[in-house]
Design brief:
This protein is α/β, with parallel strands linked by helices. It has one domain (about 5-210): Rossmann fold. It contains seven helices and six strands, in the order E-H-H-E-H-E-H-H-H-E-H-E-E. It has a six-stranded mixed beta sheet. The longest helix is centred in the middle third of the chain and has 21 residues, at about 130-150. The radius of gyration is 16 Å and the shape is globular. It starts with a strand and ends in an 8-residue tail after the last strand. The model has no long low-confidence stretch (mean pLDDT about 95).
């Protein structure tokens, strides 16, 4: 048996609440988002888990979620590495737009394709495959070796950067990943085998709030 990898999507952000495309924009957590991060941290603390290192993105909503989780597990000063490889998918021209306004402008079907397809990017932005193209190498070079060395690693990031990771971990096809939704603030605890495959996966909380 190798190490443990914990993935947490950041709590609700102000733009999640306003139904805006966020991408690389940097809104803060809402009060509910802070609650979600605290709940995720408490769920982890209740397992008695201790981390060796944490990774997060260049965006404050993920960084704050990461810090809240570390506070909850009693490791507020743990080494934390920030890297934009873990940033949310870049929504390009959609960033900052209300999702309903985008539908009115480009049509329901086109916006749905941009949001949920695997390899069709919005104008000026990234598809899920594009997001994976920066997440996967970073995972392989910086995160996975630590897990395989027996460490317990926290990754606090975003819906799409984590969907790209879960796609690999759970061996999802590009069709299956389209239906994958990750709840905000809900930790996913992976225990990996020595060959980097998944030995077990535990979701610590209610995934029904996924969106």
């Amino acid at each position: 048996m190798s190490g443990t990898l914990v993935l947490v999507r950041h709590g609700q952000s102000e733009w999640n609440l306003k139904n805006l495309f966020t991408g690389w924009k940097d809104p803060d957590l809402t009060p509910l988002g802070i609650e979600e991060a605290n709940a995720g941290g408490k769920a982890l603390a209740d397992t008695g888990i201790k981390f060796d290192i944490a990774f997060t993105s260049d965006l404050s909503r993920a960084q704050k979620t990461c810090q809240i989780v570390l506070d909850k597990v009693g490791q507020p000063n743990l080494e934390t590495i920030r890297n934009q490889a873990l940033n949310e998918r870049d929504y390009g021209d959609l960033s900052g737009l209300n999702k309903d306004d985008a539908r009115a402008r480009w049509g329901e079907e086109q916006v749905h394709i941009w949001r949920r397809s695997y390899d069709v990017p919005p104008p000026g932005g990234e598809s899920l495959r594009d997001t994976g193209a920066r997440v996967w190498p970073y995972y392989l070079t910086d995160i996975l070796p630590r897990v395989l060395a027996g460490q317990t690693v926290l990754v606090a990031a975003h819906g799409n950067s984590l969907r790209a990771l879960v796609m690999v971990l759970d061996r999802l096809t590009k069709e299956q990943v389209l239906n994958l939704n990750l709840a905000t603030g809900v930790p996913m605890v992976y225990r990996l085998n020595a060959d980097s495959t998944v030995a077990s996966k535990d979701v610590l909380g209610d995934m029904s709030g996924a969106h």
